[in-house]
Structure prediction request, 607 residues.
Amino acid sequence: MNEHTAGRSRSLSWISVLVTVLLINAGLLYWYHDRTWWERDEGQLAHVAERILNGEVLHRDVQDVRPGYVNFINAAALYLFGPSLLSLRYPLALIALAQSVLVFFLFRSHGAIIAGTLSLSSVTLGVLHFLNPNHHWYALFFTVLLICHLIWTPRTNRWYLPLAGLLIVTVGLTRHLTGAFVGMGTLSFLLLTESRESGNNLPFHKQWMGQLLCGLMLALLSFYLFRATDILAFLMFGLWPVGLLAWQLTTVAVSNNRTIHIFGELSLGMVIGALPLLAYHMVHGSLPAMIDDNILRAFDVLNWNLGQEAKYWMLPLAAAVEFRNNPGVFSLLNAAYFLVVPLFATLNGLLLFLVMHRRSRHLSLALPILAAFYGLVSLFIQIPIYLHWTAILSLAGSLWVILELKPTWNVPLNVILIILSGVSVAFQAGVPIQGKIMDLVSTQKPELFDSRHQLPKVDLWVRGDSLEAYKKVVRIIEEKTQQDDYLFAVPNNPELYFMTERRNPFRFASTDHGVLNEIEVHQVIQTLEQLRPRIITFSPGSQRNTTQSLAIMEHVRTHSQLLSQDPFFEVYLYGEESRSTKKSESAQVSVPPSRQPQYLSLPQAEG
Prediction:
């Protein structure tokens, strides 16, 4: 076989693998794209997008603590595909497929098979677990795009740094905290790369700016981790970026001029990337409201005691208990899955420091370094959803180093990836969010029911109890109100506005962000008395209840007739007092009053 024929054969081989993996990924996304929902998250996204589509201005007329880019993607999806929660999932499926292609080409040089299995894993270990059009998935996609740019684009290219900055701010304007992590990781990588290539040993007064940047990032990150996590989770996820910055603080030698150039070019790209959204807010006069929503109210979430009962170390223990209770091959594989996946970030961190110690200068560290910083996303709430938002990057970063150090491990790595993907699809993909940890690690998938022709504007397969509860509350709203009437959902059920097409009397859709103090409680009550929404719903067991939402409901209960009560909703006819109100007060589900939301089950994935 001549050289030309051999090259053509290799090309046909990797093309065949790529096409096969794409077809499998597309099939999986098609099968799971309408499975399960997380009602309040999807309702919030759809409610905000619909109001934007109807001409309201983001932040000025409708509140959202997320940065704006995802809202406009969702608005475009509703416009193109119709007013349905299902419409929001089409762009998500598209970026998941595109991301799998990027992962394939990142690893193609290591062989088509390993590139294909990792590309498959990017879907099976990621979006299939939570096919919710959440901003985290978009942030992950733009981060993968940034990593590809840092590896593929020559560093001599004029737009190397500005384009990196543009992608960083795009991540940040999708989710600001993730953008901060990605920005730190990118700057750390660039300073490290510059220092490794120059090899200079400069005096302190000529290199202090780079070390100052590392020191500032180290201080900010340490402060966040001190407030946000526990010691075990820190060792799993936080130790590696903190250790990298601490090491760079004393060893990285980059001239001040070069540091200024890197920082300035990144900033230029960030300004360019932020211009469309800034121009939108300046034209509509919504910039002050955007700052209030995205900074002051968004960062109030750091005062919450999020997910205090859920810890990652519980997952393998719970899976082991599940195996003991239901011994078998499937339970064993599932237990191994929950033992291995939480350790991806730890493995990536260990291998990163190993390869740095070996000083392999020809190997780009963009992937393992950004994976180490991106892993911090998982610390916000320690539940499997947050774990799977970062798992694929941590896994890819680990394999990036392993294949460099041990290229002969290709075959066993392929086997491991296929097993993990198989377990994920068989037992975890498309499973509704569960409130108990034993439900999370179970190999039994709950039965889902088609909501089409039963719930308006949903078009998803959902849990039976959820379907019945929403059919009941939607029927009451439609019977007791006209389409132009106001509806008020406390504390956070914007999906009801979207499904019933009733008007929200407020700029906010969630009281935990919209009502932060006693003054705002009085303003809400005054608006209720003025606009007189016919129906007010209350979710007593919601994770989003605060002292403020409970104070609002005290007013509602004394001025309303209780129409319906179940574990999901209490439904009130506002403005019509009756004896049933007093009876209902004694039957209320008790929600402990506190400034901070009390998480009665696993926290919802909106941070």
